[in-house]
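F.,

This is the one I mentioned.
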């Protein structure tokens, strides 16, 4: 087949005439046809005016749809020669969320990352003033800048876990930290215990290492000690990855008794606990004070990962690992296979932000609480059949659907302008398809609008949309 007539394309596309905006639904339908093989690649599409007549819509509508398909890489045009179907380069596809912006009208509910706080601008200005003092060196410090390591160590000490700067390794974000720890401690065939649901990129790290994943189910109520202990014992797990502080995605907070019990179980079964504290500073309600997991550690088997991305800003890409001084040095040597050191300027910014930690925590508590309340209200008004527990901190709701599956809902939501993170992304082998993760890190008015769009998507189902491939979605 070398070309398609307007009547042929009109028969193939499946778009409800009442869908708004129609041009976006039309583009989504054509895109789905190309991906499903119903529209072959390198086939000439009908002229815009001819397709508009066949669909009984304005030429402007079809022109907008063609423009969107060209932007996404599914249509290639040359003036005077027409337009052909094509497939985009995945690295540069417009729908790759790493590259997309809010300008496409989509509400980004697949990403749980708040905007920068008020303190960031001043901290950046001070860091720029500090930077020339570091210019006489080579800029490479695999362990991280001493002044930042001192502030991180001091924060752990203030939380009840005595820590020296030598125990801190600064990384290029928490994902980098997980990668370094996994690369050093996990090998092919090693059993690794993970929560289900859990942070998807931690699953990716374990899979890339060839590990055998051992999931343990948790809920809004948290962790059942006997189930986690049983998994450690039966699997002989070398490593377990846990998020005890406002767990992503459920929002659960582990109490001190459970922390002590799980560290004790890890001691008995010779398991190293990798503890992700990315959300630990974001309590929104008054909650019982909990100690860091490593505070219950007596034989150096707890490795703690932290991050600047949730409390401050994801664009800083600064994280850290707390371990023994000896292990921190081993990890610094191992990081040479990944990178050499984290950026100096970003480290200086985070060091300055540690001086404003309580100020930022108060701001986050105020803004995230308002956003959480708006999302909860919107869901209860528009989607009362969906069930969830309101978390006392963190940044996400873990929502159980009343019917249907999350992957189908994600397709429908995309057609109505919302990018979703369906439950299977957070589990293994297609499980959790009755859930979606909904972050409340966007402004209240945006989340109210998102709830309305989700209600429409849930009622109408997918309209010419397709699921965005998991491998292109940055989960945070």
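My design for it:
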């Amino acid at each position: 087949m070398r070309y398609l007539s307007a009547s042929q394309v009109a028969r193939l596309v499946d778009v409800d005439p009442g869908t708004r905006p129609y041009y976006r639904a039309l583009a989504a339908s054509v895109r789905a046809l190309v991906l499903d093989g119903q529209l072959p690649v390198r086939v000439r599409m009908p002229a815009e005016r001819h397709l508009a007549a066949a669909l009984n819509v304005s030429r402007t509508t079809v022109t907008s749809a063609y423009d969107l398909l060209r932007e996404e890489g599914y249509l290639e045009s040359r003036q005077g020669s027409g337009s052909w179907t094509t497939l985009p380069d995945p690295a540069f596809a417009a729908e790759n969320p790493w590259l997309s912006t809010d300008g496409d009208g989509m509400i980004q509910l697949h990403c749980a990352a708040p905007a920068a706080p008020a303190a960031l601008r001043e901290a950046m200005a001070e860091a720029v003033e500090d930077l020339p003092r570091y210019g006489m060196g080579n800029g490479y410090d695999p362990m991280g800048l001493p002044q930042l390591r001192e502030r991180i160590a001091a924060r752990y000490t203030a939380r009840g876990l005595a820590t020296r700067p030598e125990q801190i390794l600064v990384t290029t974000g928490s994902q980098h930290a997980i990668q370094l720890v996994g690369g050093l401690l996990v090998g092919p065939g090693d059993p690794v215990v993970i929560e289900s649901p859990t942070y998807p990129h931690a699953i990716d790290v374990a899979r890339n290492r060839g590990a055998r994943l051992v999931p343990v189910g948790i809920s809004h109520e948290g962790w059942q000690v006997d189930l986690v202990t049983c998994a450690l014992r039966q699997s002989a797990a070398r490593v377990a990855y846990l998020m005890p502080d406002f767990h992503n995605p459920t929002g659960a907070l582990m109490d001190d008794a459970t922390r002590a019990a799980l560290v004790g179980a890890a001691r008995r079964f010779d398991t190293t606990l990798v503890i992700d504290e990315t959300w630990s500073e974001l309590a929104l309600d008054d909650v019982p004070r909990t100690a860091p997991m490593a505070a219950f550690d007596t034989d150096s088997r707890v490795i703690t990962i932290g991050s600047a991305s949730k409390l401050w800003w994801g664009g800083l890409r600064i994280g850290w690992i707390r371990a023994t001084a000896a292990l921190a040095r081993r990890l610094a040597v191992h990081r040479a296979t990944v990178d050499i050191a984290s950026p100096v300027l970003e480290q200086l910014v985070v060091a300055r932000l540690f001086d404003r930690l309580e100020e930022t925590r108060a701001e986050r508590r105020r803004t995230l609480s308002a956003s959480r309340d708006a999302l909860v209200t919107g869901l209860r008004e528009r989607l009362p059949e969906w069930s969830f527990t309101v978390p006392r901190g963190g940044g996400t709701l873990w929502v159980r659907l009343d019917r249907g599956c999350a992957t189908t809902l994600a397709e429908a939501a995309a057609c109505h302008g919302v990018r979703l993170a369906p439950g299977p992304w957070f589990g293994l082998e297609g499980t959790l398809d009755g859930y979606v993760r909904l972050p409340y890190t966007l402004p209240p008015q945006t989340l109210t609008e998102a709830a309305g769009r989700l209600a429409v998507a849930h009622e109408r189902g997918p309209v010419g949309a397709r699921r965005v491939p998991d491998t292109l979605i940055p989960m945070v």
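The domain at 119-355 is CATH 3.40.640.10 (Aspartate Aminotransferase; domain 2).

Talk soon.
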